[in-house]
Fold each of these.
Amino acid sequence: MLETDSRAKDKTVIGYIPFQVAKNKTYELHYQPNVYKNDKKADEIIVKINTKNFKDDQQQIKDAMNAYVQTVFFGKDDTKYMALVANDANKDKAQMKGVFIKNMGSELDEQLSDEQTNQIYEAFERANREKGSVTLKVDTVLPDSAVVEVTPKVLFLDDMYDEIEKLKDQFIEDNRGKYSNHDAALKGWYVYMAKNIGEVFKNTDAQTSEDSYKIKPQKEGNKWKVDSQKSTVNYDCEGLLSDMTGGY
């Protein structure tokens, strides 16, 4: 049952109420106005609906969301991106890379050059592209918006702890007595990691996230735009971005 509300005289409200329906089926929508005239309740309003001629955008929305994920998150070339997605792919890719570098730790950006951090990110993206995937489910479709449930299967940094410790032990063994102070040794470790962490990514299996995220693309002309802006009110998109960059 829908909840009731009231409106002041001469005030109106316009919006959408989504219902789960099947194609080529007929339905009746019953609406009981909560108003009285001469102590008699207003008659029930019945709206008959036939979905036979309804436009079903579910596949287009799913294709748009998949094109966004494949292009931005996995670094693939999806032929449907330009036709269906309104986002600036390069801008969203840059945001994703920034989140990944942050997830790897603040010292990474301090100790390495842009070229070296790019090397690490590209190795991570490559491994995620080879092993990762997403499951998409269109939850709600409205004329100018939709809700798509996204469940990622990707690499998580927590699963790499043992492999990184092995890499660190190997660095110590290979460079024993080489560095005169801690700062130099730390710098050397990060350079070594940048060169070799790709093997850690290769040796890590993708895992299905414990969470699914409800992403809400909006219609812009003939395309769909994913709200990729990082903010506390855009919790699901931020959570998905976190999972896609290692899970922190």
Amino acid sequence: MKSLENKVSEIENEQYNIRSEFEEVAHMFDKDSANLNKISKRLEKIEYAEIKNCLRIFGLTDEENEAADKTKQKFVSDVYNVAVPISPLQDSRVLDIKRVGLFNKNSNRMVLVKFKQYDLKGEIFKARDRLRDSGIRVSNELTMSQRNKIRDLSQRGIQAYYKNGVVYQRQTSTENRTFARAHRRLDQDKAMDAANASTLSVDSAEQHVD
């Protein structure tokens, strides 16, 4: 009987030790996870600061081996002059402009523009309805984390976009213009899907997505 009690006591002590070790490991894991989360948020802020003045443009006619100067000319004529028709573009306001991805004769590559200051990007965004009427669509550049979020939602059948750092679901209305423009925007949509972009839609009801 005494031997059995000792055996039970040993088992209980072993269980206690295992539980203590598990709790210690779990605490260390939680601490590491918290640190990783802090690091991720810091990296996100750094990345956002780098891209906040960037703009994605879809629908600009594309050419194989297109030079950067040619891309910039198309941006000025088809985007800038539509958005800001009364003020010539100063070269210093655009830090960089380039096509993204490989040339495909069946769809236009996205154009990524980086502005010196945010105000010009804002002016172009304000003109997005006029640009859309001419077949041009614009969207914010996204961080890696945001692109992953959009990709995840897309795989779940949810169309979403970011606005002021918050992700929203785009709900299609039967009265909006999406269906009427479906054929004209097909190539642009393919390019946007390939680039994992999100677009703003004034015809859509905004719904926050967790």
Amino acid sequence: MDALLSEVTYSHLLELFDGNGGSSACGDVMMPVGACRGEGPRVLFVGQAIGGGPEAPMRSAEEAHARFEGYANLIGSARPFWRFIRKTLEGALHRRTGKAASLGQLAEHYGWTNLALIGSPLPSSNPDGELLERQVSACRDALREAVETMRPTSIVLLSNEYASQIRSAITGSPEQGRRRVDPLVRSLDVIDGVVDIPIYWTKHPGWLNRNGLFEPVSARLAQEL
């Protein structure tokens, strides 16, 4: 997988990390990764954020690329986030080719990033408050850069309420009418200017799993990609 941000962009995120208290107050600084070449569907999956303190503070884009490319290998795990990506891609590729895809083949068809790239120091927690407000503009620009670098055929936002929270931090006002009941909807509100790529917005896979919607939403999405 390729790094989806330049060294300059990642260095700016590291400066924000240091300015927010470093490893004592922040989690990992994510490097988005993805498949930038190849035929067939290439889907950029956008999660929420990484919780928990960093393994060790990263000081370069190269180091971050290696770490997060390794995390992306979790696509074979049973965790709801990664299982959703795997099941959705398997369904989409099987619909096109009639054949089952290996994990190695799946890696040629997806990318991974998060809405917030500087994580919370708390396990299973998303950054909010001042930590979110200080990074949200940079993360919005980084999301655009990741899309421009990968040029995916589709984008899937695996978050609903947190995407609204990100947007609220940008505009400075509460979201109105953004809490969707339908667990799979299209939206162009979060990524301004990306109008030529289908964007799908669904609940987080953990929520889908708890509410019995994991399989039907994954299957429906696989038909769209």
